[in-house]
């Protein structure tokens, strides 16, 4: 191979490597369970419906150097081969709601954002605060404040939120809900002395503290 050919190969190599390494960077940025810097998807729905991997044999990129040949690329068993990712989480992503999220765990944040998205009548949700019990201080509990809680509309709204949370108990990691003297769990309900007539108290199993790279999905 002549000097001119080698020179052309050297000039092409950075562009070729960039063309492959850039998609690989996107791969790690969105695939939280396969990349060290990926997003952690906290999904209320039935599985990651909007993440699609189409597997294929990964091409190797060969950089030719004088007297040697080095293969660089997605092959060699370094990580799972993929020819295409379709990431369509934007339409399902839940924005921050009315609850202050500092100190909340991921399942608690998912509940708070979901309630804010579905019930715009709610203007205040309490989260972390000092308490003799560990739920609020540890980011495991929410107080969903009900507007005009003694009215027929207020009671109906509280009932709707209780029903919604319990319907999604496994997805939300619900431990219990308290509203108007009734203690609800995914297994059933019983009367209790705890009043909670002006807010719906929700306790989750937590799921750990966020890293800042979570994506909360509807």
Automatic annotation (TrEMBL):
Highest taxon in the source lineage: Bacteria
Domain ARB-07466-like C-terminal: 101-193
Record InterPro entries: ARB_07466-like_C
Name this polypeptide is given: ARB-07466-like C-terminal domain-containing protein
Originating organism: Mycobacterium gastri
